[in-house]
Write a structure and sequence with these properties.
alpha/beta; eight-stranded parallel barrel; 9 helices; binds zinc ion; TIM Barrel
Length: 251
């Protein structure tokens, strides 16, 4: 049973990375590091800090600034350049894999161009993945119109090459397509676990939203991936509740 917790639960709290890791080390073996705010592993000597804990890591890209689907070639290129910086950090923290967001497109008029740009990025990411020898995964996004990859679009899946998917079950629930993603479970290398009531991307602990986790128990158990709890701004009680519920589910 590979269970982890993302440092996202400490984003915008008064904790620094070492305080966060000290707490998480007592709870789990896997931690997802991030590149934002007070949890930004790319800042100062945070990479060294990660090395003093008995934890295995995955690494999540920054939530802002990157757009791998930009049809503005300069922006797309600089996004890919930044992915290399993330991978350099991933090498230093000995990360199992990195999680990338697919990017976004605000206006319908631009969608086809954005999709073509994303496909181009996926091809280039395959080369970057070979260069760094770290698994790159693309995460399915929540139900806001601007996000790319809200459902398992054929054009995207067919162009993944050797990239894999981070399957975010909370995001997928918002898009009502959990079963669709489990149909392509061979493409899933990492799983984000959180709950919501079907309307907003609340990142709640299991049991405080409306996802019927028991219904998907078998699918979740069958995928050999880290089940990474990704709560946002929640209490340690909520975190413990989620860890316990996940352990119970995967037993
Ligand atoms: Zn994400």
């Amino acid at each position: 049973m590979k269970i982890g917790v993302s440092t996202s639960v400490f984003l915008d709290s008064d904790k620094n990375l070492s305080e966060a890791l000290e707490i998480l080390e007592k709870k789990v073996k896997y931690v997802e590091l991030g590149c934002d705010g007070n949890m930004n592993v790319m800042l100062d000597n945070n990479v060294e800090i990660t090395q003093s804990y008995d934890l295995k890591y995955t690494l999540h890209c920054p939530l802002t600034d990157l757009n791998l689907s930009s049809f503005r070639e300069k922006i797309r290129k600089v996004s890919l350049e930044f992915v290399k910086d993330i991978l350099e950090t991933a090498v230093k923290v000995d990360a199992n894999l990195i999680v990338l967001h697919p990017g976004y497109c605000v206006f319908k008029y631009d969608y086809e161009k954005a999709l073509n740009s994303l496909i181009k990025s996926l091809k280039e990411l395959n080369n970057i993945q070979d260069e760094f020898n770290i698994q790159i995964t693309i995460e399915n996004m929540p139900s806001y119109d601007m996000f790319m990859f809200r459902k398992p679009d054929k054009e995207i899946i067919e162009n993944l090459g050797d990239l894999k998917i981070t399957f975010d079950i909370g995001h997928s629930f918002l898009n009502k397509n959990i079963s669709d993603f489990f149909k392509i479970s061979d493409k899933i290398a990492h799983i984000h676990i959180h709950d919501n009531s079907g309307e907003f991307d609340e990142h709640l602990p299991i049991g405080k939203g409306k996802i019927n986790f028991n219904y998907f128990k078998k699918d979740l158990k069958n995928i050999n991936a880290i089940k990474m709890i990704e709560l946002q701004k929640k209490s340690m009680e909520d975190l413990d509740l989620c860890i316990n519920n996940l352990k119970e589910l995967l037993r």
